[in-house]
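Input structure tokens:
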């Protein structure tokens, strides 16, 4: 998987692809966010602020309140693309060995992603 936790990604497919303005209309800008968690076996990622779902939660021990909470759900890794650090646009990723280490590079601008 070419996406790691902590990367900034843009959503390139699905219902959360574009930002919705105050009038409820979709704009041309894509939703972006930081990857919180990666699930390599199922090829899914959790992105901050993307694919929000409402979950009914029961009160647990003590004085915890129950209710409806909103949280991020996993999204398939093929529906997100890494954001190019130089241009800010979604890009593909390729690998190259630099000084004995496998390093990720952005395809569009040929800039190094991993330090």
């Amino acid at each position: 998987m070419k996406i790691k936790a902590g990367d900034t990604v843009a959503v390139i497919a699905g219902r959360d692809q574009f930002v919705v303005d105050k009038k409820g209309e979709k704009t041309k800008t894509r939703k972006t966010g930081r990857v919180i968690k990666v699930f390599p076996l199922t090829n899914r990622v959790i992105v901050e602020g993307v694919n929000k779902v409402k979950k009914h939660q029961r009160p647990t021990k003590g004085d915890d309140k129950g209710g409806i909470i909103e949280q991020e759900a996993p999204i398939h890794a093929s529906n997100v693309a890494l954001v190019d650090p130089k241009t800010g646009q979604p890009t593909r990723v390729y690998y190259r060995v630099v000084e004995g280490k496998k390093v990720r590079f952005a395809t569009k601008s040929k800039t190094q992603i991993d330090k």
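The CA atoms of residues 21 and 27 lie 7 Å apart. The chain has a mean pLDDT of 92.
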